[in-house]
Amino acid sequence: MKFACACLAAALASCRCAAAEDGIMVGAFIPPVAAYPAQYRDSILNFDAVTGKRHTHTMFFCAFDYNGIGAYPYLCDQIREAGKVPVVTWQPGIEGRPDPAFSFDSFLRGRHDAGILNMARQCRGFGDPIVMRFAHEMNISSSPAWPGHWWNGGDTEKFKAMWRYVRRKFDEDGAGNVLWAWSPNYMGSAEGLDTFSNYNNLYPGDDVVEIVGVSGLNYGNHPTAGPRMPVTVQWLFIPILRDLMAG
């Protein structure tokens, strides 16, 4: 397994292709304001000014049942106008929620080919680099792509086959400007010691992954989310980053 970058869940994303100089690239998830789409570029640049950092990437979420990036016709263009690389978190479910209609088998049987090709063609038409954060956090039960859902049968091999199937469709369509980001949750086994929640069993292969990411959130003292205590970036990420780098 190769290691390319670390992403802070829904907040940080990195892409090797955008690096013009040595150093750490920092990205951000900046929620679009639907009522004022033309101001999204300004929101991105204002975020740079407020934080005092030049962010290289801007991420947004896109559910599989939407019209690809065409569901947000202004986002990628305004991200590009702001001098950033778009990062698309593409979730294989209904509005980003787990659904048996999006089982691994349903992908492998071609039931979602139209949606896959639609997204591939839109990304290819964009022309510039796009990072595709597909089926992220696949090792936790809230993810639509978790193998532990009853409709996926705990089959880690089929998760990898699904990933490779979707990637192959993009490649066949000529969407070579898309870089694929594999991004598990920092928890090594979200549901105990089962094999289908261990991210080490869910890596689809170096030949279909350009970027390795990590998701992790500090929920503080939230009674049900996260470790139920405030944590540091080091606490969240050092263990999994060491593990990924050693592979």
Structure report:
This protein is α/β, with parallel strands linked by helices. It has helices spanning 40-51, 75-81, 104-108, 113-126, 156-172, 233-246, and strands at 27-29, 57-63, 85-91, 130-134, 178-182, 211-212. The chain has a six-stranded parallel β-sheet. The longest helix has 17 residues, at 156-172. The chain is globular, with a radius of gyration of 17 Å.
Keywords:
247 residues, 6 strands, disordered N terminus, globular, single chain, alpha/beta
What integer value in Å does the Rg equal? Answer: 17 Å
How much of the residues is beta strand, in percent? 5-15%
Order of helices and strands: EHEHEHHEHEEH
Gap between N and C termini: 5 Å
Outline the secondary-structure elements.
Elements: E1 27-29, H1 40-51, E2 57-63, H2 75-81, E3 85-91, H3 104-108, H4 113-126, E4 130-134, H5 156-172, E5 178-182, E6 211-212, H6 233-246
Parallel strand pairs: 1-2, 2-3, 3-4, 4-5, 5-6
Short description:
By secondary structure, this protein is of the alpha/beta class. It has helices at residues 40-51, 75-81, 104-108, 113-126, 156-172, 233-246, and strands at residues 27-29, 57-63, 85-91, 130-134, 178-182, 211-212. It contains six helices and six strands; from the N terminus they run βαβαβααβαββα.
